[in-house]
Write the structure tokens for this entry.
Amino acid sequence: MRQFLEGSRAVAEIVKLCKPGVISAYPITPQTHIVEELAQMVANGELNAQFVNVESEHSAASVVLGAVATGARAFTATSSQGLLYMAEVLFNISGLRLPLVLTCANRAISAPINIWNDLQDSISLRDSGWIQFYAENIQEVADLHLLAYRLGEDKSIMLPVMVCMDGYTLTHGMETVDIPTQEEIDKFLPSYKPLYKLDPAEPLTMGLLANPDYYLETRFAIQETFKDVLKMIPKISEEFKNRFARDYKDGLVEEYCTKDAEKVIVAMGSVCGTIKEVVDALRQKGKKVGLLKVISYRPFPYAKVDAALKDIPQVAVLDKAVSLGAYAPLAVEIKATFFGKRKSPKIISSFVAGLGGRDITFESVKEIFTKLNRKEVNLEFIDLKPELLKEEYGE
Amino acid sequence: MENNSLFKPGHTACAGCGQAIAARLVIDAAGSNTIVVNNTGCLEVFSSQYPESAWNVPWIHSLFENAAAVASGVEAALVYLGKKETTNVIAQAGDGGTADIGLQALSGMWERGADILSICYDNEAYENTGIQRSGLTPYGTNTTTTPPGTKSIGNPRPKKPMPEIANAHGIPYVATASVGFPQDLQRKVKKAISIKGPKYIQIHVPCPLGWRHETELTYQIARLAVETGLYPLIEYENGKLVAVRKIAQPKPVEEYLRPQGRFKHLLNNPEELKQIQEIAENNIQKYNLKTEVTNEKSQTQILPNPK
């Protein structure tokens, strides 16, 4: 049913329809609306779930870990410092091969404290063994949650999934969203049947100590599973299209006006909406520009990116996060895609913008297209304020 | 020989490990319809090294500090799945995992009123990482991070009062126990399990490696801690002291300290011995541990010095 919903409400609606048995979360802006809505649904008896209020994000993640280990579907959401505080538990959840869905309302990292949007929080956890999806708009956020449960709980996958949505832009923005019915969702997402669980009828030891004779293989196994995830996402996206009539193609990347493009920006998240606007405007003026939106950042779809960009002469990567002291996180992956390849873009330039909620405007995107020329740009910050960089330090 | 215990032999604990004995007593008292959540620590390491496990009950280890929160998730899932009425949940940890790094999650779990029994195996230091001081290390102890020297007598602080902290949360059952009194320990576990809501039992478990005593003395040393008044066995229901283990004739603390290398530096220091004797006296007074009449034989026994 099509409804005009706040992004957080849309997430709560879709999570409710996925029927988690246990929800646990800790307040942090701009994530809170999601779990407030779910708490109300539980209070009203619309959702049969245990809502566990905890004293920290570390415990929120631990509660859902315990719940999935015992055989219940579970859900949590967080943001920024909360995600970092969960970090230790998140690595543990993937290591234990527990399927779980977490919504990350993307927000900057302190210090200085800043509650506005960028992607630094979830990007900083890219190595945690979680599948990571980045959504452009509210419809996509809702749909990705449904895909996430289906994907993570697949017996051949058994991995947790983080659905990333830009704080405020998507959590607090409003859109008309199509939320499927319970009946439609039940057909797509069967009830959770764990491969293994804590059950006195069949005692099982989970979370063992693996010495150097065994640890390496556990990591290799997850790395191998990520290959299966890359194959599974297109399959599930296809089924999703047939059931819900929304086409995410392979579900890994979205190509927007790239076929004949000479200049393409690669980006993730809601900024892709702005980039599409700029692409449309420049196309009207006859400029051959396009966008490659990365939806699945982990696993990273190198083959899809290669196919999409290999014939594009000039590519700009727009990062909304940094890896201080090194190249920007998304740019690294794009450059790695083409290292040593015969067919490759001639230019792969890297730009950073929008940190701490600085607006990435129509003009910012146009500037990137302008700066995308024969000279490769490595890690240029867009929209810096020169007057703020002229601070004086004593003598 | 048949072994019906839910905690099987063959694990890799040190000889004389008090925690291994206590862990077996706890799970056998709780029974097979129990899910155990274990913090990181000695017990976890020596009982669950892949591909072997000593546990014949469903058991999970996640991290050092989150057993109480993971157990809360287990409990919530059991409620959701309609299995809580028939399943016990135990969250267990060492003294560091309980009183220090795990205290926040534990406090949250108690405050939520979760139907979970938390067990603290109190061997009074971070023994697993090499005998560092914890919040439950007693006054004067020589640990690797509170070594005695010309400017230090060892650990400068008394034990964190965990039973009182537990009681302050208004939980229905709080007790201390000792591996030196196994029947009392098992009775307390059974009683705790029969009560709905959060329960806390702190069990004194000697560690021959960290306390530097002979491995065959674990049981006696545990008993001496109680018999001197240094480790009072107390039991609270709804915040009220309902039972204590009486001591017929409190023994001087020196009898408890002498066989342990961790207190060796105090033995020729009358001032410090007096201070520790005072801790025992205070306990005896506070909990009214002394009794005039006794059926128990005097168990006074002089234990040898550590090598």
About this structure: The longest helix of chain A spans residues 215-244. The interface with chain B takes residues 21-22, 24, 48-50, 52-56, 58-60, 62-72, 74, 88-89, 92, 96, 198-200, 202-211, 214 of chain A (CB under 8 Å). The CA atoms of residues 264 and 290 of chain A lie 5 Å apart. Chain A has twelve helices and 16 strands.
